[in-house]
Amino acid sequence: MDVAEELNKKQKKRISQKRNRISFSASLPDDVCGVFAGSVCAVKYSTNPFLDMRESILEMIQYVGVCDWKDVEELVYCFIALNSSEIHESIRDAFLSLASARMS
């Protein structure tokens, strides 16, 4: 295999890998003013947004100490505002999964 073929193969592999990853944003909305206002956002690439979102939600709840429904609503808002619409369903499912586990 010559150098050009090798470079082409590597480029195709990188493009393929990028298609399989979804990016989480890192800019907290300006209008967040509750318990999450001082939170730091991180970018994460995921091949399983549901599990990664669920883990991240649990970490935020434990770290910040969500106490009431208003805090939960703000957390949902932050996740929706920070992430692209293509993973909003994963965010919804992760929250519902945690809520149903909590009620069991």
From TrEMBL:
Signal peptide: none annotated. Pfam families: Ovate. One of its GO terms (biological process) is negative regulation of DNA-templated transcription. One of its GO terms (cellular component) is nucleus. Keywords: Nucleus, Repressor, Transcription, Transcription regulation. Residues 42-101 form the OVATE domain. InterPro entries: Ovate (IPR038933), Ovate_C (IPR006458). Its main location: nucleus. The keyword Nucleus applies. It is found in: Nucleus. It comes from the Eukaryota. The keyword Glycoprotein does not apply. Transcriptional repressor that regulates multiple aspects of plant growth and development. This is Transcription repressor. The lineage of its organism: Eukaryota, Viridiplantae, Streptophyta, Embryophyta, Tracheophyta.
